[in-house]
Each structure stands twice: as structure tokens, then as C-alpha cells.
Design a protein that fits this description.
alpha+beta; GMP Synthetase, Chain A, domain 3; three-stranded mixed beta sheet; 4 helices; 3 strands; about 50% helix; about 20% strand
């Protein structure tokens, strides 16, 4: 399904503001763990935002659970930042972005194939 220009603009704005909220306003000081908002897709009615996040290092399962538990507080802070630009602040749904892990696995497989073919 093709996204409208408005969905793309709102998704980009939510991604930018969400990254700022998580970085500056929330306490995510977990040693050795990096949280990145990689993509935000907004529903056609702009009521739901599906947020893809990448988690690196540390206890990623624990951090993802904390992120889900903090969703109401994150949405509130997002609303304070975006209140003048949007009438309704979208509901936040989280999903893990494992694309970097998948690319690492593919790279490792390709290297093992190359090593096996060399004399």
C-alpha cells in the first residue's frame, strides 16, 4: 500500500520528535545499550504510529519491555512537543527492527562461502 504525502510527512515528524523525546527527556541511561528509532509508519487516519526501533548491546529484551511500559509517558511528552502541529497524537505501537542483525548474518554467510571457495 502506497503512503500518502501527508502520512510520510507526519511519520517523519513523529520519528524526529520521538527520537528527541527518547534521547533528551526520558531516562534511557543503560550502559552499553543504544536505542534508535529507525522508521515510523502512520496509519491513513493518522491515529496509529508503528515505530520501528533498533536496540544494540546490553539487555535488549529488558529495554524493549521498559519501552513498551513507558509508552503512555512517551506519548504524553510527544504530545507536548507536537501539540501545535497535530490535533491528535497517534497511538504508539513498537516493533523491533532487526534489519541490521539480518544484514550481519548475510554478511557472515557470504564470507564463509568466499572462504570455502578459495584454495
Amino acid at each position: 500500500m502506497k503512503l500518502s504525502k501527508r502520512q510520510l510527512r507526519v511519520g517523519s515528524l513523529v520519528q524526529q520528535e520521538l527520537a528527541e523525546v527518547l534521547l533528551r527527556e526520558m531516562d534511557w541511561a543503560h550502559a552499553g545499550t543504544l536505542l534508535t528509532v529507525t522508521n515510523v509508519r502512520v496509519s491513513p487516519d493518522l491515529a496509529i504510529a508503528r515505530c520501528s526501533v533498533s536496540l544494540f548491546g546490553g539487555k535488549t529484551d529488558e529495554l524493549f519491555a521498559q519501552l513498551e511500559a513507558a509508552t503512555p509517558e512517551i506519548r504524553l511528552r510527544l504530545g507536548r512537543r507536537m501539540g501545535k502541529n497535530m490535533r491528535i497524537i497517534p497511538q504508539l505501537l513498537w516493533q523491533r527492527d532487526d534489519s541490521l542483525d539480518a544484514s550481519d548474518r548475510i554478511d557472515a554467510l557470504l564470507q564463509s562461502v568466499r572462504a570455502g571457495q578459495e584454495p
